Amino acid sequence: MKAMIFAAGLGTRLRPLTNDRPKALVTVGGKTMLERVITHIAESGFDDITINIHHFGDKIVKFLEEKSNFGLNIHISDERDLLLDTGGGLLKARKFLEGDDEPFLVHNADILTDIDLKAMYDYAKQSDTLSTILVKPRVTQRYLLFDNTNQLRGWINKKTGETKPKGFNYKPGEYNELAFGGIHMISPKIFPLLEDYARGERVFSITPFYVDECGKHAIHGYQPREDYTWLDVGKPDTLAQAESLFNLHCSG
């Protein structure tokens, strides 16, 4: 089973911690975010992992070497020359993620969770989706909009009132308004579609692709039935929250 970890971000919200290291190597409860994500992914059955790098990327390479790649098959997708954003980063890593018809996992390095990733993988495989996106009912400004079959239908910025895709008719109460949770299960069938969407651009985000293409392809939101812990550790307040949580677990 294949996976990709997005670890190339600049980590601007965590400065000054990221002034001398990538965000993925910031520690939480004595372990780096990257180690925690890799461990969770591996325990879920993913043993072929691609990690993209940019900001202090050499330190991630060195860290993985010191850990003997955690005994896994790990590839580096090197973006040190140009940070490609999520869509561009996915396309650059294409050669590592293609090769079969199975979904692959994409996981942000700053998302720490105990979600059952194998269950999410099984859902994506059985539903034959182009992409299955972890979503949560949390407070934010921007929401993905899903119908009652979990199909993505659009996007809204509640602060500005902007909606997408073009021509989308938003009606309050008609859709489930959910926030993206930083984890997707993606079919390799996405790659030619991303190529067409990018039109030669190297730097682009995958979220606008999802929104623009949701009328043509099965792009589902996924909400686990069981309770689970989920933290976006890309900000100082949530980093402190994660520190408290993992320190509590260690002492408990």
TrEMBL record:
Keyword terms: Nucleotidyltransferase, Transferase
InterPro entries found in the cross-reference section: GlmU-like (IPR050065), NTP_transferase_dom (IPR005835), Nucleotide-diphossugar_trans (IPR029044)
Record bears the keyword Nucleotidyltransferase: yes
Record has Protein transport as a keyword: no
Entry-linked Pfam families: NTP_transferase
One GO MF term: nucleotidyltransferase activity
Residues in Nucleotidyl transferase domain copies: 2-243
Name of this protein: NTP transferase domain-containing protein
Organism taxonomic ancestry: Bacteria, Pseudomonadati, Bacteroidota, Bacteroidia, Bacteroidales
